[in-house]
Amino acid sequence: MLVEQLEKVDVTRMELNAQIAFWINVYNALLMHAYLAYGIPNNFLRRLALFHKDAYNIGGVVISANAIEQSIFGFQTPRIGWWLETFISTALRKKSGEDKQLRNSKLGLLVSQPLVCFALCTGAFSDPALKVYTTSNVTAELEEAKKQFIRANVVVKMSRKVLLPKMLENFSREAS
Fold first, then answer.
1. 3-class SS at 168?
2. Among 12, 52, 74, 78, which one is most buried in terms of CB atoms within 10 A?
3. pLDDT confidence of residue 146
4. From the first residue on, what is the mean pLDDT of each consecutive set of 10 residues in the chain (176 residues)?
């Protein structure tokens, strides 16, 4: 099976664009796999657990979707319910030994990539469109994903109010 092949991948030997495309695609596939394996969560806690429950062994390190967000991409802005998630995420990562494995693996990206926010699909209605990212064109693809997301989600009301999705606030925090 393809997932088993991930155990043989050495991400540290990839160039930066290859790493970015690889981690985006793995994150999206991992969450799709989790939804297929565990079903659609019916409340916030079950949805939160989904980000920790399913994980892939990549180059000998077991990595969950949450670990990709926090440790690989280095995102500082948590999803909705951040206080609860921070508490539970830390407990779940320590229980699985994920923190120690990731610190020793050197898998995290050396340079912040805030545009990745527009590529990660968690299954929420307001998420960016799901697509496959390529090594050769990942920077342009991320710029295009940002533009598509803004076109699809920014609303200007007749009263001259502009409604912005929460993700743009998160993006601005990650970019600063």
1. helix
2. 52
3. 92
4. 87 94 96 90 79 87 88 71 54 53 66 89 85 96 93 86 79 70
- Cα separation, 43 vs 36, in Å, equals 17
The whole-angstrom separation of Cα 130 and Cα 138 is: 14
Is 135 in contact with 21 (CB distance < 8 Å)? yes
Handedness of CA 54, 86, 22, 134 (dihedral sign): positive
| pLDDT the model gives residue 78 | 56
Q: What is the pTM of this model?
A: 0.82
Distance of CA 11 to the CA centre of its chain: 16
Give the pLDDT confidence score for residue 137 in this predicted structure: 96
User: Cα-Cα-Cα-Cα dihedral of 55, 60, 66, 72, to 10°?
Assistant: -150
Q: Specify the length of the chain in residues.
A: 176
Q: What are 10's two structure tokens?
A: 């050495």
pLDDT of residue 66: 86
Q: DSSP letter for 159, please.
A: T
In DSSP notation, 67-125 reads HIIIIIS---S--SSHHHHHHHHHHHHHHHTHHHHHHHHT-S-SS--GGGGGT---S-T
Q: Long-range contact list for 29-32, CB < 8 A, 24+ apart?
A: 30/54, 30/55, 30/56, 30/64, 30/65, 30/68, 31/65, 31/121, 31/122, 31/123, 32/123, 32/130
Please, are residues 118 and 145 in contact by the beta-carbon 8 Å criterion?
yes
